[in-house]
Amino acid sequence: MHFAMRCYCVLALLCAGFGFARIQSSEEPSLGDVARQMREQQRLKSADIVKKARLVQEPGTNIRPQNSDTFIEPSEVLLPLGVLQRFQLLDAVGNELPSNEGWAVSDPTMAELSVEGGRALLLARKVGNVTLRHESGAETKEIRIHDRKPSMPVESRWILQPIDGEFVRALWASGSWFGRIDGSDEEKEDSAAYFYEDRGRQSSHIRAIREDGLQAWQWPAGTEEVPHMLCGDFYSGVLAYVGDKQNRMLISISASGKERWRVAVPGFPGRNVNVGLTGDVLLVEENPDSVGARVVVLDGLTGAEKVNFALPPSREIVRNMELRNGKAMCSPEAESSRNLPAYYSNIMTNAIVSPNVTTLAYSELSVVADGGKCEPGAILPLARIHLTVVQRLMIWDMTDELSTKFYTVEEHAVEGDAASMVFEVTEPTGDIIVGETGTGNFLAVRQAREHWPTLASEDVGYFQYRVTENRTVKYRFPVRVSGSKLRSKMLLGDGNAIGYVTRGNSLVAFDTDTAKELWRWKSDNADIYACAALKGDAVIVGQGKTFAVIRSGKLEDHRDADFMLFVMKFLPNNDPL
User: Fold this and answer.
1) Among 2-6, 148-152, 279-283, 354-358, which is the least confidently predicted range?
2) How many C-beta atoms lie closer than 10 Å to residue 361's C-beta?
3) Average pLDDT over residues 186-202
4) 105, 149, 304, 412 — which has fewest CB within 10 A?
5) Is the previous residue joined to 220 through a cis bond, with omega within 30 degrees of 0?
6) 381 and 372 Cβ atoms separated by less than 8 Å
7) What angle do CA 228, 310, 323 make, to 5 degrees?
8) How far apart are CA 259 and CA 250, in angstroms?
9) Rounded to two decimals, what is the model's pTM?
């Protein structure tokens, strides 16, 4: 089986979400295949772990053991008989305090305690519950020892506690599920398997966590910078940004927690970053007035810029007149122009095709309004003004070798007088994933009809376009959920036969071959987002701080953030920007 990858929200093993599709193949499993199998195995083994062992973290709080100066990680564990679990002592700001003395277990007959390298080790001996204490006053929550009977996991499962406030995001380090590419950081015993963003009101940290739940390092150290974790890289490190939008810096942090490089990325909105299989980092920077955008490609090892090009702008040109106070005044031979807002999709990489292809969709709109021959100073009625409008939905593809192609997916061209003419626009709204066959794309699109000069929209509709590998439209699936501030997000289900789209409070399932709607489900929450497709006709959707499992259009179960963080070990960051 093969999967392609996207890096913008859902499958947060590497980035803020790789999209994936599955096709039949005799070759070895690809990145997404391995990733999804690992997630699904964890789900099947541990579906009720959080029900049986959890303390729900309230948003914005910082729960600690008795002594707030120190605490023990992991703070809570499901521990199978015969399995050894390591623990570490941390100070109030998350720095490790190695201690060879002062450890104690509540019942030594249930768990055998030893100390190695300043860390406590517990070996599970008997079924029951114990706690681990340190003389500094730190104490774990419940450590539950079990006999591995279904549906308990066969290996240790752990839960961490936040330092700064709450965990808002989790990613898998590439070295823990993918492997290494040329130039990867050296793999050490304490290499990070996962990255957690621990965000509070006053500070924020990226915490690198080993496979066994111990903290390898945290970043930043000794500075007041507030990082926002973006994406893993293919060197086993992680990408983050700091600063406001126009003074933003993109930072590459190595697997050992050292800053590899930092690059100014003014106008980067803090989302829509992609890492190619070459290690290159791709992102979009917006102009300060949001009427233009450019694609930037950085070398993943050095941060050096490899590509920087502006997306063709949308423009309005006014000839032989001037617009004043909403009226058109004749001004022979005058000409003015302005850029119009830029609309573009996320960036995604299809890892199935060879060479790999990175794709971005965008809109081009050209509006020319001409007053023609007229009396200078005269107010022109809209019926006297001639409009020529061309609007295109475009796709830009770039291979690993940095060769590029541009395709016109859809075009609307019309001309006539401004009083009677209404023109159509088709604009990407952000979401883009690979097609169900492993080629082409599903693209979230907004369709509308507009008037000049206000460019006000009417008859707005939202669709999922199935764009083929030849960049033609196979079908347009109507999502039928309005609201300009809402976001569409799509996942492919088990076997890629079903597509799941969330928008607003609605989840819609449709047949990816025929575009037939299969079912709809509405949440009581105002805004939901698709997180992960499960085996069968089921999907996990986020509802604020909680998550729901929807199967065949019906609510099956709930999951909390601890399940996403410590069982599936990923949590997409859906903070509004």
Assistant:
1) 2-6
2) 29
3) 82
4) 149
5) yes
6) no
7) 105
8) 11
9) 0.84
